[in-house]
Amino acid sequence: MRITLLCIGKTDDAHFAAAIEKFRLRLKHYITFNMVVIPDVKHTKHLSVDEQKAREAALLLKQFAPGDQVVLLDERGKEYRSVEFADYLNKLLITSVQHVVFVVGGPYGFDDAVYRRANGRISLSRMTFSHQMVRLFFVEQLYRAFSILRGEPYHHE
Asked: Subunit info (predicted)?
């Protein structure tokens, strides 16, 4: 199985970028992991929220292949404890899903077209975090999940 984290907009903070890279390198011992960053939509000052979300949707939808399992990181998604998230990933592995794409949307969330394409939604918390933080939290939880599945000592419960 391959996992991709698809994001709108780059990570500006060097500290976040370094921490994300640390976990990206750790993940390569478990799985093929890729992070794809789509540039922010340009000239948004004169766009409505719906127009901006529609433009982002067009960029996101181009990234998905027909067989991809698309999971949105969304505040209205299902919340998991770390062990439950590991079980979720294990089920995807067992069912022979070839490619899972986790998606971090733009500042206003996702357009309805992206919700329709998605196979599921996960919430990292009921709180709102910056998109840079979400990326870091997600890659850390992904690493934690695989260490749980391998019975390694990173996670303590």
From this structure: Homodimer.
Query: Average of pLDDT values for 29-39?
Result: 95
Q: How many domains does the chain have?
A: 1
- Residue 128 has what pLDDT? 87
Write out the binding residues for S-adenosyl-L-methionine. 73, 105, 124-129
**59 vs 45: which has the higher pLDDT:** 59
CB atoms within 10 A of CB 141: 18
The DSSP output letter for 125 is -
Q: Which residues are annotated as a binding site?
A: 73, 105, 124-129
Residue 106 DSSP label: B
Whether 156 maps to a domain, the answer reads no
* Strands (DSSP E) found in the chain: 2-8, 32-38, 69-79, 99-104, 120-123
Query: pLDDT tens-digit profile of 59-89?
Result: 999 999 999 999 999 999 999 999 999 999 9
Q: Report residue 140: phi and psi, to 5°.
A: -65, -45
Q: What residue numbers bound the domain in which 62 lies?
A: 2-39+49-148
Here the CATH number for the domain that contains residue 113 is: 3.40.1280.10
